[in-house]
Amino acid sequence: MTTPIDHTPKSRNLAKEVQPGVFLLDHHFRGSPGVIGSYLVNDGDALTLIETGPASTMETLLAGVRQAGFDPDQIGDIIVTHIHLDHAGGAGALLRRLPRAHLHVHPVGAPHLIDPAKLMSSATRIYGELMGPLWGEMLPVPKERLHILGDRDTLATGSRTLHAYDTPGHANHHLALHERETGIVFTGDVAGVRLDGISHVRPPTPPPEFSPEKWQSSIATLRSLAPRKLYLTHFGGYDDVAWHLDELLARTWFWAGWVGGRLATGEEPLAVANALRDMEDVLLSSAAGEDSLLVRYEEAGNYRMSVDGIARWWRKRGQN
Questions:
Q1: Residue 230 bridge partners (DSSP)
Q2: Which residues contact 296 (CB under 8 A, 6 or more apart)?
Q3: How high is the pLDDT of residue 50?
Q4: 24 part of a folded domain
Q5: Section 137-154 average pLDDT
Q6: Percentage, residues of the chain above pLDDT 70
Q7: Tens digit of each residue's pLDDT (9 = 90 or more) over 204-261
Q8: Of 67, 70, 18, 17, which Cα lies nearest the Cα of 44?
Q9: Within a domain: residue 10?
Q10: What residues are paired with 166 via a beta bridge?
Q11: Is residue 144 part of a domain?
Q12: 102: in domain
């Protein structure tokens, strides 16, 4: 029998206004704060949610909306940066709870939200019987409530406007969202993983679509926007934009080369993942000053899946 995973918040800190009209909502994934976040953008009566998170943390998300001072039924628009389970797994279930809401997604991801069977089957092969406790059930999104958000398309929230940018590298169906007036960008995973404000950025590189070439181009896109602040799903806001993007790009290419070199000698992927963990955890502990973030960073970007994504990229390069 599978033991249920406790996603219950260990504190009441579910919502924080990070700048006027923008709230960071903490899903407390697996009971841990600061791993998966959604953002609520408000202007007047208009309310837009960015990222649904997984279905398993939906009640915590709704509690966060209420803690921010809003009725969840006020949400008119939901945007997911891409369709991975930690970003969009709760989309179908959330729409059942929110009668006014419409969902906006990259055109490549849309069919998989309307019919998530293939996505769920693929994830179940990876997570096995932990699939339900970790992520919950990914329900279909009604086609009539789903809208395509393509490159350079815009979505209004009251007088505020979000501009969508196609930003592959982590996934081919990935969008970043820029608000020009404030200079903020909601980055999804294209700006990597960085927790608790420390100086350690990590690229999540899972299969099947990891591509450092595309990621480098997407980072160039982010730079072209001259953002004042990056808001990451994993996790929170960062205003040292130039350093953050430099570090992410360097680490992305370093991981790709380091992992590829070890795999080329015949080392097994699990051994490579363990070696990557040993190396990275030393750096992470040094940046954080202690070890409490080790587990939370891996929850946001699993080492074995990262190695598998890089290995798949190398195999595809060999076929070209």
A1: 185, 238
A2: 32, 34, 35, 195
A3: 98
A4: yes
A5: 96
A6: 96
A7: 999 999 999 999 999 999 999 999 999 999 999 999 999 999 999 999 999 999 999 9
A8: 70
A9: no
A10: 175
A11: yes
A12: yes
Comparing C-alpha atoms, which of 116, 278, 292, 272 is closest to residue 205?
272
Tokens of 13: 């800190």
295-309 confidence digits (pLDDT tens): 999 999 899 999 999
What's the total number of domains in the chain? 1
Which residue did the predictor score with more confidence, 96 or 3? 96
Where is average pLDDT lowest: 4-18, 49-63, 241-255, 291-305? 4-18
- Per the document, the length of the chain is 320
- Calpha distance 299→53 (Å, rounded): 13
What integer pLDDT is reported at residue 318 of this predicted model? 78
Instruction: Report the CATH number that the domain containing residue 254 is assigned in CATH.
Output: 3.60.15.10
| Mean pLDDT score, 85-89 | 96
DSSP states of the chain: -PPPP----SSS--EEEEETTEEEEE--GGG-SSSSEEEEEEETTEEEEE----GGGHHHHHHHHHHTT--GGG--EEE-SS-SHHHHTTHHHHHHH-TT-EEEE-TTTHHHHHSTHHHHHHHHHHHGGGHHHHH---PPPPGGGEEE--TT-EEEETTEEEEEEE--SS-TT-EEEEETTTTEEEEETTT-B--TT-S--B----TTT--HHHHHHHHHHHHHT--SEEEETTTEEE--HHHHHHHHHHHHHHHHHHHHHHHHTT--HHHHHHHHHHHHHHHHHHHHSSSTHHHHHHHHS-HHHHHHHHHHHHHHHHH-
Range of the structural domain that residue 290 is part of: 15-319
pLDDT score at 320: 47
